[in-house]
């Protein structure tokens, strides 16, 4: 079914399905051309920034972990790095390795959730993972099993799968024994093979023709596929220290929501997340993950966001291989954490959350009280880019019927795996009285 | 080994959305026999694995139905779906109602699955429950203890 392209047309979704949190989208077109795109997918974590002021420098890892139920480790790591920098401490050696391992667990569980339960139904023609599970139980089960392996790493290293409690500024409260970590090996070997099978599965999906011009931004580390740190780089020549984030990026208010859109100063929208990381750091992927990317035909550069599902699958394999290498090289540290004494100063932290770079900045006084906090999550940074995508995606497709086009727009948004900070979990119950 | 599980679902920093978590915290202090008590703040999809294999699972969550704050809803969803409002103000990517149906499709529901909902008043960012909700949490704790009591008696010692 097609749709006439003259007159005014509005595509509206009050609540986007399969997006982390509460979000909405409005696309207005007139006479065959998109005039307006409003995406309301992101509430900035302003409550948390205000809540942190006056609290102790030791508290951000625990408090900010609760901003997102899917990527608590990202919040913990970016906040720890920022506080440690403010206090003049660098954490390395086996404690850093454990942080890296913990983060790999989060990538595995977050990517498995998105690939299998949120994104795959789009490509396989199902409304949701529930319908998919009815017809292809084995696909959903594999996704859940893969996610579980990520959760198991979080439980062992982080103390529990959701909102790990074992993380502190300077390191951990307790560290696992080498024997305990080795106990994860078999599961991770399975997860690696499952991830490689996932790459093969999703690379066979049909992708809409939608290659775009982007500015890709991510971390670049000298020796590893960046997760825990590095320099902030772009494919257009940006190369800055994490401390310089505020000099190069800004958040601006947009009228149609409470959201802040991040943009490059003097530039504009940019793209962060798996596809940016792949394009910036492909040469540093672990061996089997790198090979699977080649076999999947990803090439040197991916510019079609619908293919981000393949990149996520490749990154899942990378996280499994990286986790195995970290386990094999692990030696228990002498102490679980480095002592971090407060001192007046400002610190910056930036790590690669599953959805892209997550920046934290804290100013603390000599007693360790937090004077100021800034948190810039990846979805805030991608929001402007998603609106650009929607505009470019809808224009040549205005002939499609309302249902099809609306559904494809939602799919275009899900390419970014957007996450709403601080989403509620309450159940919207319908009470039927008889 | 625990044969039963009680899961409190919610978000600690979203006011009344903490109701399920608070109930779980108080239930943990009651040391229910053969029953694991879990506070869960992440995606509801994990519930499928948390309750799989249990004899009885109780999930406590804040709800919004338009009834008076503090109203308690008890729904046995073992054989029927949760009467939710799909795709309207839904919360997470995979919400509780979705997790129940996903579990059903995969054959991963416990023998009995009960959802206890506590009607919330305020879900804005913040800490602390509304007074009516705090009272309801106390009642829900007793309700869940009573729900589990016959099972503990059947379960013998240990």
Overview of this protein structure:
The complex is a heterodimer of chains A (434) and B (158). With 434 residues, chain A is of the alpha+beta class. Chain A has a single domain (46-383), classed as Cytochrome-c3 Hydrogenase, chain B. Chain A contains 14 helices and 14 strands. Chain A has helices at 46-52, 60-64, 72-86, 93-124, 129-135, 137-158, 178-182, 185-203, 245-248, 274-281, 287-295, 308-328, 378-394, 402-414; strands spanning 8-13, 24-30, 33-40, 167-168, 171-172, 217-220, 231-234, 239-240, 249-253, 260-264, 345-353, 356-364, 370-376, 427-428. In chain A, strands 1-2-3 form a 3-stranded antiparallel beta sheet, covered by helices on one side. In chain A, strands 6-7-8 form a 3-stranded antiparallel beta sheet, covered by helices on one side. The two termini of chain A are 40 Å apart. The relative contact order of chain A is 0.21. Chain B is α/β, with parallel strands linked by helices and 158 residues long. Chain B has one domain (4-155): HybD-like (Rossmann fold, 3-Layer(aba) Sandwich). Chain B has 4 helices and 5 strands, in the order E-H-E-H-E-E-H-E-H. Chain B has helices at 19-29, 47-51, 96-106, 131-155; strands at residues 4-9, 35-40, 56-64, 72-76, 112-119. In chain B, strand 1, helix 1 (19-29) and strand 2 form a beta-alpha-beta unit. Chains A and B meet through helix 1, helix 4, helix 5, helix 6 and strand 14 of A and strand 3 and helix 3 of B.
